[in-house]
Amino acid sequence: FKTIHVAGSDGKGSTCAYLYSILRSAGIKAGLYSSPQIVDFNERISVDGKDISDDEFLLLAYEVMVVVESMKDEGYDCTFFESTTALAFLYFQRKGVECAVIEVGMGGRFDATNIIDPEVTVITNISKEHTQMLGNSISEIAIEKAGIIKPGVPVITCNSGPALDEISNIARSMKSELVVVDDVSLIDMCQTSSVMEYRGERYEVGIPGSYQATNAAMAIEASSRVRLYKDLVPHIKDGLKNTLWPGRMQKIDGLPLIVDVTHTKNGMAALSKDILEIYGKVTVVFGILSDKDIVGISECVAKMAEQVIVTEPDSDRAMKISEVSRVMGLRMDDVIVSDSVEFAIETALENMKGSAVLVTGSFRMAEGAMRWLKKRYVRY
Question: How far apart are CA 162 and CA 315, in angstroms?
Answer without folding.
Answer: 33
